[in-house]
Amino acid sequence: MGIITNIAVQPNSHERFRVTVQRENGEIDVITVDQDVLLQFRLKKGMKIDEELLQEIVYADQVKKTYNQALHFLSHRMRSEHEVIHHLAKKGAPEDVIAKVLHKLRENKYVDDREFAFAYVRTQKQTTAKGPYVIRKELEKLGVAAEWIEQSIAMYSFDEQVKTARSLCEKARKQRAKQSLRQWKYQVEQLLYRKGFPQEVIDQVLLPERDAKEEQEWEALEYQGRKAHRRYEKYDGPVYEQKMKQALYRKGFPLEMIEQFLNKLKEEKD
């Protein structure tokens, strides 16, 4: 048993109070508590307090402190429950305290994995140009339940996926204008795979892009071919022709076009 001998505001925080408890044996205990905990237990100077009540107060304050940490963590953006749990555990909060805090956060609608999943999909498809496969993996990593993942991913329609993938494809077409069709197609397919788009979306996007890229194929061959020519023009006859064909074929150009280009170079030389 002990008695509260003093209650004072903490100098560095007006929301926390320093409570001094003198035990029957004369020992002094000092604890700090949140103002809500102070009001919850109606703490005041001269109040008698036993060991069980003291532990309840300390526990309630730990819950309050952990709850405030969670609110601060959530103030920057929406978080999944898994993120909140991981953050509080890193701060040193015990599992039972985290469970109590999480229950309160759910009650107050500060965490809701279903709403989080829907908001996450909306943000990712609009701002990051990611496909559904990558978004699904990210939600799984964030600990969102499979049910909410499937429901939220369903918002990302096929047409929206095609539109997003097409914008990436258009950018790639401009950046890779000097590549052969085969090389360009392979690299763009790999890009869209990495971004998380399914094969049917990739096929839908690449079909019209292929037609547009074919118009640039000869221009790309001219660019790559003349670079190769400057590298191998020191060689004569068959050696020159072999090296040119090998270099351009590795770049993805078809042999028929390479033959046409080599004939054009011969005509220019003559």
List keywords for this structure.
elongated, 270 residues, 12 helices, alpha+beta, 11% strand, 4 strands, 4-stranded antiparallel beta sheet, single chain
Write a structural description:
There is one protein chain. The protein is α+β, with helices and mostly antiparallel strands and 270 residues long. The chain has a 4-stranded antiparallel β-sheet. The model has no long low-confidence stretch (mean pLDDT 89). The longest helix is centred in the C-terminal third of the chain and has 34 residues, at 199-232. Strand 1 (2-10) and strand 2 form a beta hairpin. It has helices at residues 35-40, 51-74, 81-90, 95-107, 113-127, 132-141, 146-153, 158-175, 181-195, 199-232, 237-250, 255-269; strands at residues 2-10, 13-23, 28-34, 48-49.
Going across the biggest sheet, name each strand in turn: 3-2-1-4
Q: Average pLDDT, to the nearest integer?
A: 89
Low-confidence stretches: none
Helix content: 55-70%
How big a fraction of the residues is strand?
Answer: 5-15%
Distance from first to last alpha carbon: 111 Å
- Major β-sheet profile: 4 strands, antiparallel
Q: Which value, in Å, is the CA radius of gyration? A: 34 Å
Anisotropy-based shape = elongated
Q: Please write the string of helix (H) and strand (E) elements.
A: EEEHEHHHHHHHHHHH
By DSSP, the count of extended strands is 4
- How many helical elements? 12
* SSE-based structural type: alpha+beta
